Task: structure prediction
Amino acid sequence: MALTTNKAVLDWIDEKAALTQPDRIVWIDGSEAQLEELRAEACSTGELEKLNEEKLPGCYLHRTAENDVARVEDRTFICCERKEDAGPTNNWMAPAEMYAKLNKLYDGAMKGRTMYVIPYSMGVVGSPFAKYGIELTDSIYVVLNMAIMTRVGQAVLDALGDSPDYVKGLHAKAGIDPENRYIVQFPQDNTIMSVNSGYGGNVLLGKKCFALRIATCLGRDEGWMAEHMLILGIQNPAGEVRYLAAAFPSACGKTNLAMLIPPAHYLEKGWKVWCVGDDIAWLRIGEDGRLWAMNPEYGFFGVAPGTNDKSNPNALATTRRGTIFTNVVHNLDDNTVWWEDLDKNPPKNAVDWKGNPWNGQESTEKGAHPNSRFTAPAKNCPCISPEFESPKGVPISAIVFGGRRAKTAPLVYQSRDWDHGVFVGSVMASETTAAAAGAVGVVRRDPMAMLPFCGYNMARYWQHWLDMGGKIAHPPKIFNVNWFRTDDEGRFIWPGFGDNLRVLEWIMKRCYDEVEADETPIGYEPRPEDIDLEGSGVDQETLKGLLSVDKDLWLEDVAAIRDFYVKFGDTLPKTLAGELDALEARLK
Ligand code: OXD
Ligand code: MN
Result:
């Protein structure tokens, strides 16, 4: 039975049901009883496996198809009327053409299946900052993941009332055919269509598709920002909590930073770090003229391999109950899960991510897929912020950009002002590591870590950033960090992980005018004596090296940035071209 009388919602569902032809339609009310029934049904068909209730209460294992293990950027489209509005960094097709193509793929795709109607909220239900969506899907796995990642159910429909203002999402697994897999955003219709995939990043439509791609367009039109950023609160010994939002390309330790545990010396003094979000921030200007950030999600969709008691004990603790694991190793001895680098004791009697028998003591093959995931409730996190459910979010003092650079970027620098900070974000880059296929050390530009997530022309998105700067009375200060400088043997110089708090402390002091800085051609840098190194194993000389700026390397980077900017032609904001010229002049 329908859970709403909202005509816009009912008409749209009728239309999509006529297209996909499911045998039945089930509305997700958000109750634990209904979710429990769905878990049982998924276990009975093998879609999920129930894990050891004592060791991992409420946890389940799922395997995707082998050809369906990651986001598919080459099959992700932004469909607006004019190609130029999608910009040079997005795949584009005209909406009419894409709808025609997709409608053929959805035609009868749910025959013999159930269509689940998931009403969900990005943000606290009822908050003026929340936005609502409805995802139609034929996958119980999607329903159960959405119920962890977002707030779902009747309360969302009640809050939506009769309004047609919601984001429409249609997902059908169809044949999981990679040749016909499409992840498509239609910003003008607030519509998302995903077909032929069952992998989280492609099918949990609230996440990248809505909260970033569609939301960037909403933010542009409504005067706010949707960003691929973690949100962190840093509590100093005086008990005062200051917040930052930070964007990093993948493989830069974003989840680890979001759940950072302070070094012993800081813990003794009374420092604490609170996680508000690990992936997405919606930023709005508050009545006080500051920028406020809220995490629109309700859970974490984290990469499992590499998560362990040392790298991220908070993330590991978060996954110990109510979690869905995807494509990890199944340990048959005690019906638990394992992944590479969880510990040094891989199970012998196990099943790998492909569903084959696997002996971790002997096999040379990886047991878990490198992109295997946990979907875990944010509230499980031992350091989840008391402000996590705050309807208006938290006030942001600093925005931090980062990347993985072996030599160029120093440990930390502060931008000269907002416009220069936008420039710093627009040229964000990371060097490829041996972990990824392809050449090592190749610089990939990933502006604001948004390259695959910006729902419109990236150059106009930069202009939106610049425009926002003019509207925020008390804008956050903007910084860049690089935890990944290496020595001549290729070893990391900075210890990273919890020790990154030493840098964040300096950043926060800068935001509150509590510390001086040295002006350099690239921005403001710490005086080495202003970073607390006690117990870090790093001495002041080494820190000086980490803060050094090699002008020749920077001039090479300036040339590379010019090449990158050329792609955007006339749409490139003049302010950014000016910032690049000014940087070059300062370096010379
Ligand atoms: C993610 C991503 O899964 O950025 O969060 O790819
Ligand atoms: Mn992400």
User: Anything to note?
Assistant: The chain has 17 helices and 31 strands.
